[in-house]
Each structure stands twice: as structure tokens, then as C-alpha cells.
Records
---
Amino acid sequence: MRRFFASSIVKAVLAASLIVAIAAGVSGCGPGKPVTPETGGGAGNKVKLNGAGSTFVFPMMSKWSALYDSVKPGAQVNYQSIGSGGGIRQVIAKTVDFGATDGPMTDEQLQEAKKPVLHIPVVMGAVVPAYYLPGNPAIRFSGPMLADIFLGKITKWNDPALAALNPGVKLPDRQIVVVHRADGSGTTYIWVDYLAKVSAEWKAKVGVATSVNWPVGLGGKGNEGVAGQIKRTPGSLGYVELVYALQNKITFGAVKNPAGQYIKGSAASVSAAGAGAANTIPADLRVSITNAPGKGAYPVSGFAWLLVYAGQENQKRGQALTDFLWWVIHDGQKAVKPLDYARLPEQVVKLAEGKIKEIRVSKANGR
């Protein structure tokens, strides 16, 4: 829903394909040698890279595109916001150079890809419970309560359980209209991963995936679609990535964390959630940070990853892709906070560097 975006950057990207210029140096790597970040570029080295996937990270990608274009003119990078599920499918089909997802690929999906796919974490963000009620009251939620709403067990805004968490707040005698994603989504993955951790019933009946069978509610395509549904539907409650709630001026609530605090999504509270994750991240970097312990941690937080094949068949494109990834996890992190994402912890940057250095190319330059 393009008209709901106030940001000129996001408007521009929604109006056309996301194109970003990046430099591509030609490394002289032979078979089996790792690609390492290089500078350079020029007219003779122009490469076109295509990416697709996460709407969660789309505003960040658009900002990165503008910045990278100014500092490293050279090749073109086209990114399409089609949802994490679509990004994963296109990576498996090898129709893109990289995918973007907020829910890591499953073991089955990695096997389907046939060749090793790397998960490169690039940013952290919050998924928030966004709603539309007259007067924009500030509402607090617990995890089990959100699960019960999305299970269809709590159906009214003035339900006694919701009222008990919000003393002094005038809640209307109005039906809750649940809004969820209609497409395969990493934002959904983060949301349902959290619900499964706080509700045994949710885990048993619905489970965790980028796409689930929703017990109730209306579907919207992309974070844009869900934000649009919420904004035009009085009484609605849905989930969107934080920047979409802020850009669309949609009210969102605080969620109770394991420390008993009611915390709103923000760059600081997401950073608090990710602070302890660096010491427990597995070797493949597929990790969940929902319902993280710790003071000030926002419980519905998650990573976004770029997905790339470890083996690159085209030397020039492999080098260009590596250069872009390297820039994103270093200089690109300076642009994260203004869009209310959280930058990668330094320990995670080091882990991401190691993954990028695993990218290898063949001798063939291809097209």
C-alpha cells in the first residue's frame, strides 16, 4: 500500500524497482579460493545483481541502496520486496543472486537448495502489535494474551483479561479484527516463533513457519498490506515491522518481556534482546532472539539475513556480491538506527565476516 508511506526514500522505492549501484572488482581467484572484499570498479566491471524477499528489511534496503550508490558507483543491484517466503523460493530456484529473509531457511529448504546456502545477518528489528482504536489508547499486552487473540479465544477489546492488564484505559466494547500476513513472511516467522514460546496451545495448534494456517483474521500481502488493512479497519489488531508502524503513524502496544517489563519496540530494546544472543549463535548463524531474557529487552525481536550460495559460479558477480555484503555489515550499519532498526552487535559482525569469507567463485566469468 504505497500511499501509506511517509518516507520519501520508501516512496521512491515503492514507485519503481529498487536499484542500487555497487562496485565490483575482479579478484583473480581460482577454483576453491575464497572471495575477499575489494574496492575498485569502473565501467568495465559493471554487474547487475538481483535480490528479492523480506518486506521487513525493505525500508533498510532502500536506505542502503541510496547510500551505497553514492559511495560505490558501478554495478546495479535490484531488490524486490516480495516476502521472505518468496525470497527463499527464488534462492532455491537460483533466479536471484541473493534472497532476504527474517525467518531462517529450514533444514528441508537447505536440502532442497542442493548446494550450501549461507545466512548473512545484516540487521535486527522489532515486530510490533499494531492496532486502530479511536483515541489511540496506549495498550499493554502479554504474550499469552496475544496468542489467545490470534487463536480467536479473546474476541473483544474490553475482554476482562485485556482490561486487567490496562487499568485506567477505556477499552471499547468492540470486536477485535485480527490482521495477519497472507504471504510467506519472515515477519510472520518472528511473530509466531514468539507466540509458540509463550503459548503451548499456539505451538501445538498452529506452530512456527513463515506461513501458517491462521485460526482467525484477515490477510494482507507484505508489511505494506497489513499496515494498510490496520489503518483502514477500526478495531483491528495486527503485526508489522516497527518502521511500517512508524511510517504509517499506526499506534502499537507494549509487550511483557520475561523480566516482567512492558516494553515497546525500539532500536534500543531490540539491541537489548540481541545482546545476549551473540554467545549462543550456532555455527550456521540461524538463531531466534524472541522472548529474550534481560532488562529492557523487547520480546518480539529478530534478525534479517541475506541468503547467498557459498559457491558462486561467476567470478565477477561473486566479487560484486561479496563487496556489497561486506559494506552492509560495516559502513552500512551506520544507517540502521535512524530507521529504528538495531545494528548488529560487534560479535555478530565478526561471525558474519567469517561467513562472507566462505563465499567462493569459479574461474568462469560468465556474462
---
Amino acid sequence: MKLLTFTVPCYNSEGYMAKCVDSLLAGGEDVEIIIVDDGSADATASIADDYAERYPSIVKAVHKENGGHGSAVNAGLELAAGLFFKVVDSDDWVKEADYMQILEALRELAGGEKVLDMLVSNFVYEKEGEKKNKVMRYRHALPENEIFTWDEVRHFHKGQYILMHSVIFRTKLLKECGLKLPEHMFYVDNLFVFEPLPFVKNMYYMDVNFYRYYIGREGQSVNETVMISRIDQQIAVNKRMIDYMAENKAKLKCSRKMRGYMTNYLEIITTVSSILLIRGGTEEHLQKKKELWNYIKQKDRLLYMRLRYGLLGNSMNLPGRGGRKISVEGYRLCQRFFKFN
């Protein structure tokens, strides 16, 4: 069995996917790399096939009709033979020295008495035009270099959350919890790091800058203008997260800290949805914002009270045009501080 499966979703990635795959090949025979060509119209398919031909014991090339990022992740997970599973987007890459440390830790932990469910490491925002890149670390929130449970998790700062870039899951856990991401939809990475959490018991954190998250490519899904144009998909993901919290109360009761973390993460996603709708600026956008908050209220009134009357909920629902302007300025301040897009 392979130690770690990487799934690399690719759509028209011919210009940059080689940097990604080459960085993963440093793992040698311990890893498998599943390149999922999601109906690309450029040379992505032939590049994937070339890698599979040159590295037949490491690389698999999968070709499928276009179904979006979630569909590509689903395809990789279905075929994954590794003990652990990680998604690496085709315009991102990993740092070799830190990669070697990750693999060494996984080897040791795989044979331990406790079953490791999730490994967390840092990621770096490789932002176009920035002289100094922001590093997302978790050293203040998570114990380092030891197995721990939710009971030992400390406080996460605002803007500090476990994202797809920072997480490696146990493959069997993802399959057993029934994770299936929606197709033809952006922003499903939020579901990938949300829905499996009630099944995660044992975690491990390494303070290494393993994953390099590139921001700045034209048309990238996290570009604010693009996100506003795809706001219905952001809202759909947001609502699925709300549904998950409302419909899985029994699972969430097993850990107060886990439930608190998931509520805080949902708060951030709902804040992003709200600010994008405010930035959209039309009456239709503002009506959708109102509908989103009403949706939370109807689904789970206690959850609504927690989100609506917290600091972020209040700041996203200031009355009138002046209130919306203050909301946007607050968001801009957070952008500058946390360096997100």
C-alpha cells in the first residue's frame, strides 16, 4: 500500500501543472499521484498521460468529462490506494524539504498505537506581486509533534482555519464518512475541510511550510470579481454547511470544541458570502444576502443567534448604505492584515 495519495484536479492546466506534479514526484514510491483531467480542452490530457507513462508506479492519469473541482476530487478519492489522502491544486506546489519531513512523520504515525485521522501543516500564500508571503501557521492553536484530540485544541484566531491546503486526511475516514463533493460548483474545498471533522478523533500538527498556495492567476476562482460573478455557488456551499450543522446535531455533540470550531468556520464563510453580496451592490445582491440570513434563521434559530449577533454577524448587517460601507471597510482591513484575496 502507498503511504500518501495526492489528487491533482486539472482543468486547462497545461501552463503550470508540471511545476505541481514535479514537486510531488520527490516523494518517490511512497506516494501515488492521481492527475485528474477534468475535461480540459488544452494539452492537459497529454501532459498527464506523459507523466503516467514516465512514472507508471507513481502516477495515474484519469480523464473524465468536465464536472468541476469537487468532481475531480471525488474521482481521485474513489481511486486512492494510499493510507492518507491530500488534494493539491494544479497551480500550487509543495516545498521539498518540508515534504520529506511530512512523509517521515506519516511513516512513523502509520505504525503507531493510535490511528491518525488528520495531519495539519502550514501553508504559504504565494501571492503575485507580494514581496513577503503570508504564512498560515497553527502553533498557537494546536499542540506540535504529538497526537492530540479535540479536547486539546486551543483557540483559533479570526482568519485562522484549517483549509484544504493545510490538511492530510486518512483515506479510509473520508470514504467511510461518505464525503462526496457537489459537481459543477466552485468553493467546495470548504466542504472538504468541514464535513469530515466529526469523524476526526486523532490529529497531529507539524509547524512546517509544506504547501505553497498560489494567488494571482487571472480568472482564479478566489479573485473577488470572479467570486461575485459566481456568488450563487458560494451561497450554495454556504447553505450546505448550514444544513450540515443543523441536521447533524447528535454528531456535533461529541465534542464542544469541535462544534465551536465548526461554528466559527461557518461564521467566516457566511461573512465572506455577506461581504461579496454587499460588494455586488445591486438590489438583487442585497436581497440574496437577506435570504441567506433568513435561511439560517429557519434552519436553526440557536445557530442563527450565534452567527447573527456575534462580532462578524453584527458588522455584516449594519443598516443602510452607510452601514454597508463600514462593513466593506472592515473587510478591507482584514484583507490587508490576513493577506487573503
